[in-house]
Amino acid sequence: TYLCSTPKGGGETPWIETVALTRPNSASPMKELAKGAAACFALLLQSSMLSVVKSWLETIERKLQDLFYAVVERHISPLLIQESLLTVLGRSPSGESTFDVNENYNIAVSIPKKLITLKYTMEEASVMVKIEIPSAFPLKPPAVTFESGKGCGVSTDKWRSWMLKMTVLLFGGSANVWECVTLFGRNMDAHFSGQEPCPICFAVVSAVDHRLPDMRCAVCRNAALHSYCLYSWWANSGQTVCPLCRSPWVSS
Q: Where is the RING-type domain (predicted)?
Protein backbone atom coordinates (compact mmCIF):
# COMPACT_ATOMS: atom_id res chain seq x y z
CA THR A 1 0.00 0.00 0.00
CA TYR A 2 1.37 3.39 -0.94
CA LEU A 3 0.42 6.49 1.01
CA CYS A 4 1.10 9.95 -0.40
CA SER A 5 2.13 12.18 2.49
CA THR A 6 3.50 15.67 3.11
CA PRO A 7 6.83 16.68 1.50
CA LYS A 8 9.75 14.99 3.21
CA GLY A 9 12.52 17.17 4.61
CA GLY A 10 10.75 20.38 3.62
CA GLY A 11 10.98 19.67 -0.11
CA GLU A 12 8.32 20.46 -2.69
CA THR A 13 7.84 16.93 -4.04
CA PRO A 14 5.44 14.65 -2.11
CA TRP A 15 7.02 11.39 -1.04
CA ILE A 16 5.60 7.90 -0.86
CA GLU A 17 5.23 5.91 2.34
CA THR A 18 5.20 2.13 1.85
CA VAL A 19 3.19 0.25 4.46
CA ALA A 20 2.97 -3.56 4.64
CA LEU A 21 -0.59 -4.36 5.70
CA THR A 22 -0.06 -8.11 6.04
CA ARG A 23 2.89 -10.47 6.25
CA PRO A 24 3.30 -13.45 3.92
CA ASN A 25 1.83 -16.67 5.36
CA SER A 26 0.34 -14.80 8.30
CA ALA A 27 -1.76 -16.87 10.72
CA SER A 28 -4.20 -13.96 11.23
CA PRO A 29 -4.26 -11.96 7.98
CA MET A 30 -7.52 -10.13 8.77
CA LYS A 31 -6.25 -8.91 12.14
CA GLU A 32 -3.04 -7.70 10.55
CA LEU A 33 -5.03 -6.06 7.76
CA ALA A 34 -7.10 -4.16 10.34
CA LYS A 35 -3.97 -3.04 12.19
CA GLY A 36 -2.31 -2.01 8.93
CA ALA A 37 -5.36 -0.03 7.85
CA ALA A 38 -5.40 1.75 11.22
CA ALA A 39 -1.70 2.58 10.82
CA CYS A 40 -2.38 4.05 7.36
CA PHE A 41 -5.23 6.13 8.73
CA ALA A 42 -3.04 7.38 11.58
CA LEU A 43 -0.49 8.56 9.00
CA LEU A 44 -3.27 10.38 7.15
CA LEU A 45 -4.22 12.24 10.33
CA GLN A 46 -0.61 13.37 10.72
CA SER A 47 -0.32 14.67 7.16
CA SER A 48 -1.85 17.39 5.00
CA MET A 49 -4.69 14.94 4.28
CA LEU A 50 -6.17 15.78 7.70
CA SER A 51 -8.19 18.60 6.15
CA VAL A 52 -9.66 16.14 3.63
CA VAL A 53 -10.68 13.77 6.43
CA LYS A 54 -12.35 16.61 8.35
CA SER A 55 -14.17 17.79 5.22
CA TRP A 56 -15.43 14.25 4.61
CA LEU A 57 -16.71 14.05 8.19
CA GLU A 58 -18.95 17.04 7.51
CA THR A 59 -20.72 15.12 4.72
CA ILE A 60 -21.82 12.07 6.72
CA GLU A 61 -24.71 11.61 9.15
CA ARG A 62 -24.33 12.74 12.77
CA LYS A 63 -24.67 9.18 14.08
CA LEU A 64 -21.81 8.02 11.85
CA GLN A 65 -19.76 11.06 12.86
CA ASP A 66 -20.15 10.17 16.54
CA LEU A 67 -19.16 6.56 15.84
CA PHE A 68 -16.13 7.68 13.82
CA TYR A 69 -14.96 10.07 16.55
CA ALA A 70 -15.42 7.36 19.19
CA VAL A 71 -13.27 4.87 17.25
CA VAL A 72 -10.52 7.43 16.61
CA GLU A 73 -10.59 8.63 20.22
CA ARG A 74 -10.28 5.10 21.58
CA HIS A 75 -7.82 3.47 19.20
CA ILE A 76 -5.79 6.12 17.35
CA SER A 77 -5.74 9.44 19.23
CA PRO A 78 -3.97 8.08 22.35
CA LEU A 79 -1.01 7.01 20.20
CA LEU A 80 -0.85 10.31 18.31
CA ILE A 81 -1.18 12.35 21.51
CA GLN A 82 1.58 10.38 23.20
CA GLU A 83 3.82 10.75 20.14
CA SER A 84 3.21 14.53 20.05
CA LEU A 85 4.01 14.94 23.75
CA LEU A 86 7.08 12.71 23.51
CA THR A 87 8.30 14.85 20.60
CA VAL A 88 8.43 17.82 22.97
CA LEU A 89 9.75 15.75 25.87
CA GLY A 90 12.51 14.43 23.61
CA ARG A 91 13.97 17.95 23.51
CA SER A 92 14.68 17.80 27.24
CA PRO A 93 18.47 17.46 27.69
CA SER A 94 18.04 15.45 30.90
CA GLY A 95 14.83 13.65 29.98
CA GLU A 96 12.96 15.45 32.77
CA SER A 97 9.36 16.54 32.15
CA THR A 98 10.26 20.15 33.01
CA PHE A 99 13.20 21.72 31.22
CA ASP A 100 14.66 25.03 30.00
CA VAL A 101 14.95 25.84 26.30
CA ASN A 102 17.08 28.85 27.21
CA GLU A 103 17.52 31.12 30.22
CA ASN A 104 14.11 32.72 29.62
CA TYR A 105 11.96 29.91 28.25
CA ASN A 106 10.75 26.92 30.29
CA ILE A 107 8.57 23.98 29.19
CA ALA A 108 6.68 21.44 31.31
CA VAL A 109 5.06 18.33 29.79
CA SER A 110 2.42 16.16 31.50
CA ILE A 111 1.55 13.05 29.51
CA PRO A 112 -1.25 11.87 31.89
CA LYS A 113 -2.95 15.29 31.70
CA LYS A 114 -2.19 15.73 27.96
CA LEU A 115 -0.88 19.17 28.87
CA ILE A 116 2.08 21.35 27.86
CA THR A 117 2.84 24.45 29.93
CA LEU A 118 5.03 27.18 28.44
CA LYS A 119 6.58 29.80 30.72
CA TYR A 120 8.59 32.74 29.45
CA THR A 121 10.33 35.07 31.92
CA MET A 122 12.25 38.24 31.16
CA GLU A 123 13.44 40.15 34.25
CA GLU A 124 10.21 41.18 36.04
CA ALA A 125 7.92 40.11 33.20
CA SER A 126 6.37 36.64 33.19
CA VAL A 127 4.10 34.85 30.70
CA MET A 128 2.43 31.44 30.96
CA VAL A 129 0.55 29.60 28.21
CA LYS A 130 -1.07 26.16 28.41
CA ILE A 131 -1.76 23.75 25.55
CA GLU A 132 -4.37 21.11 26.42
CA ILE A 133 -4.69 18.33 23.86
CA PRO A 134 -8.21 16.84 23.55
CA SER A 135 -8.92 13.12 23.61
CA ALA A 136 -9.94 13.15 19.92
CA PHE A 137 -6.82 14.98 18.69
CA PRO A 138 -6.17 15.80 15.87
CA LEU A 139 -9.81 15.65 14.76
CA LYS A 140 -10.67 18.13 17.52
CA PRO A 141 -8.59 21.26 18.15
CA PRO A 142 -6.38 21.75 21.20
CA ALA A 143 -7.17 24.42 23.76
CA VAL A 144 -4.46 27.08 23.86
CA THR A 145 -4.99 29.36 26.85
CA PHE A 146 -3.17 32.43 28.11
CA GLU A 147 -2.79 31.93 31.86
CA SER A 148 -0.83 34.99 32.96
CA GLY A 149 1.20 37.86 31.60
CA LYS A 150 2.62 40.00 34.37
CA GLY A 151 4.37 43.06 32.97
CA CYS A 152 5.02 41.54 29.54
CA GLY A 153 3.57 44.45 27.53
CA VAL A 154 1.77 42.24 24.99
CA SER A 155 -1.58 43.67 23.89
CA THR A 156 -4.82 41.70 23.99
CA ASP A 157 -4.99 41.69 20.18
CA LYS A 158 -1.50 40.20 19.98
CA TRP A 159 -2.37 37.49 22.49
CA ARG A 160 -5.52 36.55 20.62
CA SER A 161 -3.61 36.38 17.35
CA TRP A 162 -0.79 34.29 18.83
CA MET A 163 -3.19 31.85 20.50
CA LEU A 164 -5.20 31.50 17.29
CA LYS A 165 -2.11 30.79 15.20
CA MET A 166 -0.88 28.18 17.68
CA THR A 167 -4.29 26.49 17.53
CA VAL A 168 -4.28 26.56 13.72
CA LEU A 169 -0.78 25.05 13.63
CA LEU A 170 -1.81 22.23 15.95
CA PHE A 171 -5.14 21.63 14.21
CA GLY A 172 -4.04 22.04 10.61
CA GLY A 173 -2.15 18.78 10.21
CA SER A 174 0.88 20.56 8.76
CA ALA A 175 3.01 21.03 11.84
CA ASN A 176 3.95 19.11 14.96
CA VAL A 177 3.57 20.29 18.54
CA TRP A 178 7.26 21.16 18.88
CA GLU A 179 7.00 23.55 15.92
CA CYS A 180 4.14 25.32 17.68
CA VAL A 181 6.10 25.52 20.94
CA THR A 182 9.13 26.90 19.08
CA LEU A 183 7.01 29.54 17.32
CA PHE A 184 5.75 30.88 20.65
CA GLY A 185 9.29 31.12 22.03
CA ARG A 186 10.55 32.95 18.93
CA ASN A 187 7.65 35.42 19.11
CA MET A 188 8.46 36.17 22.75
CA ASP A 189 12.19 36.55 21.99
CA ALA A 190 11.42 38.98 19.17
CA HIS A 191 8.87 40.88 21.28
CA PHE A 192 11.32 41.53 24.11
CA SER A 193 14.11 42.42 21.68
CA GLY A 194 11.93 45.28 20.40
CA GLN A 195 10.97 43.78 17.02
CA GLU A 196 7.65 45.25 15.84
CA PRO A 197 4.92 42.73 14.92
CA CYS A 198 3.23 42.53 11.54
CA PRO A 199 0.14 44.82 11.74
CA ILE A 200 -1.94 42.32 9.76
CA CYS A 201 -1.46 39.16 11.85
CA PHE A 202 -0.07 40.83 15.03
CA ALA A 203 2.73 38.24 15.21
CA VAL A 204 6.45 38.88 14.95
CA VAL A 205 7.35 35.48 13.50
CA SER A 206 5.15 34.27 10.64
CA ALA A 207 3.30 31.04 11.39
CA VAL A 208 3.52 30.14 7.68
CA ASP A 209 7.21 30.51 6.79
CA HIS A 210 8.71 31.57 10.17
CA ARG A 211 10.07 34.81 8.69
CA LEU A 212 10.15 38.24 10.32
CA PRO A 213 8.21 41.18 8.80
CA ASP A 214 10.26 42.32 5.78
CA MET A 215 7.88 44.31 3.53
CA ARG A 216 7.55 48.07 4.14
CA CYS A 217 5.58 50.71 2.25
CA ALA A 218 7.83 53.41 0.74
CA VAL A 219 5.05 56.01 1.03
CA CYS A 220 4.10 55.87 4.73
CA ARG A 221 7.11 53.84 5.95
CA ASN A 222 5.02 52.46 8.80
CA ALA A 223 5.50 49.04 10.39
CA ALA A 224 6.92 46.22 8.25
CA LEU A 225 4.62 43.38 7.19
CA HIS A 226 5.09 39.69 6.50
CA SER A 227 5.20 39.10 2.75
CA TYR A 228 2.70 36.23 3.08
CA CYS A 229 0.26 38.41 5.06
CA LEU A 230 0.57 41.25 2.57
CA TYR A 231 -0.02 39.05 -0.51
CA SER A 232 -2.98 37.38 1.22
CA TRP A 233 -4.43 40.79 2.08
CA TRP A 234 -4.08 41.90 -1.54
CA ALA A 235 -5.74 38.71 -2.78
CA ASN A 236 -8.70 39.15 -0.42
CA SER A 237 -9.14 42.89 -0.98
CA GLY A 238 -8.48 42.89 -4.72
CA GLN A 239 -6.28 45.98 -4.32
CA THR A 240 -2.49 46.25 -4.39
CA VAL A 241 -2.37 49.14 -1.94
CA CYS A 242 -0.70 49.61 1.43
CA PRO A 243 -3.02 48.19 4.14
CA LEU A 244 -1.97 51.04 6.47
CA CYS A 245 -2.06 54.21 4.35
CA ARG A 246 -4.05 52.88 1.35
CA SER A 247 -1.57 54.34 -1.14
CA PRO A 248 -0.68 52.29 -4.25
CA TRP A 249 2.01 49.90 -3.06
CA VAL A 250 5.61 50.93 -3.59
CA SER A 251 8.09 48.71 -1.79
CA SER A 252 10.68 50.42 0.38
A: 198-246
Half-sphere exposure of 98 (CA within 13 A, CB side): 2
Q: What is the pTM of this model?
A: 0.67
Which of 47, 46, 42 lies closest to 19, judged by CA?
42
CB atoms within 10 A of CB 77: 23
When pLDDT is cut at 50, 70 and 90, the band that residue 24 belongs to is low
Q: Is 177 left (phi over 0), alpha (psi -120 to 50) or beta?
A: alpha
d(CA 252, CA 218): 4
Q: Is residue 232 predicted with pLDDT exceeding 90?
A: no
Q: Quickly list H helices, 107-155.
A: none
